[in-house]
Amino acid sequence: MFPIRKLFTELNLTNIIQTLGRHGLASLSAMGRMGSFLAQACYSMLRFPGKPMLLLKQISFIGAKSLFVIVLTAAFTGMVLGLQGYYTLAKFGSEGLLGVAVALSLIRELGPVLTALMVTGRAGSAITAEIGIMQISEQIDALETMALDPFKYLISPKFIAAMISLPLLCAIFDLVGIYGGWLVGVKLLGVNPGAYFTEMYRSVEWRDVYSGFIKSFCFGIIIAWVSCYKGYYTARGAEGVSRATTEAVVLTSVLVLVWDYFLTSVLL
Amino acid sequence: MIQLIDLHKSFGSQQVLRGLDLTIPKGAITAIIGPSGEGKSVTLKQMIGLQKPDKGDVLVAGESIVGLKRNDLNKVREKFAMVFQNSALFDSMTVFENIAFPLQEKTDLSKDVIEQRVKAALADVSLRNVEQKYPDELSGGMKKRVGLARALLVNPEIILFDEPTTGLDPVIRNSIHQLIKDTQSRFGFTAVLVSHDIPDIFDIAHYVAMLYQGKILQFGTASEIKNSDNPVVHQFINGILDGPINIGVD
Asked: Are B17 and B38 in contact (CB under 8 A)?
């Protein structure tokens, strides 16, 4: 008879299966908890959209205070696109299409994605750390004991602010990026300024613009969702907050890129 | 006032409460004592529904709070206030905003009335000229007082104190104890106090419950517990190294 028990012992297969099973169950449970967190946040947003002052404070934090980094990133992204695009198009004698190449790259993909990644690094990490510290210092429990809903005061305003701020930041990113490309292409490399903008107006459609905004809006939800969730379920002191912050940034960035692929395939 | 019936609570493989039964008398100070890690704070959190028991029931004024929906649970929580171990003040708000917050959010009181009540609450805990300070500008004792002021402001029927004097020097500790005793006799609320301050706790608590191995080992008046001949209680309140309590030190 085949010595199954011996083989299992020697290869330690039972341990491997147990470990895989444990991780699988833990992942499923975490996904369920994340889903339930999102549902609770949506319910809370509809029921208690938040006080205007709370909302403005969050829009200022997520949106206005991210402006500098967005403008800086957009300018250099546009300039790099201008530089790369020019030398590639010049091989085919199509430098006049530089404006189209820069604008479509920014409006369809780079604008929404890079805006989301920059906001994740600047505001998402701060949201996780803030809520995480409130959790470990029992400030969230204090809200609960006062019979006040933490979702109403902490989570809803951040979700709404992210959903409003991301499309606006993305619009600014696109605009600054296009002028960054113009600076390099037209002013430094001598592309015809008329061609740069005329071709752009001719080729960029309204559909490209709104698909970028839809992406930004969705990325706003992802940033608020993951950042708030990771902060809300922080445990074990300062190390826990640090781990939650790292996990929030990594998970948000991955989800943004994955979701971008799915949205692109639907919106194209 | 509060009844805990056959409470069980585990965290992963660690079983903390193992069939705990406790009745908190109304209008008195009840202290919960016991070795570290025995689940005193967990017991307190069960009373206000911050944690759900795995098994058992929690009755507040005769009404079960286990499994209540958030809105119904919040109605029960209106009876409560809680003073946390680390005060749990909102660090982005000033002292004034911290204390005024529950009134601003839950009542229609005017700004002036709220301001008066905040000042009165601060005077009740002997604090002055701290309204515009942030929590990180306050000492540990002042934070505890602000926490107590925030709790008193909503006129609760029950106040839960989670180790309110941890990390304070003996003088401040005594002043906090005195404050709890004085405010309780003035306002008549039911107080539940988790504490390690032995023997000081016997001077302020009317009743003491000794928690050991996930159950209430002994419940009685402060003097009954102080003079208990139960070997575990005796070892614990006298801080004796040798005895039935395993302190994990060779």
From this structure: no
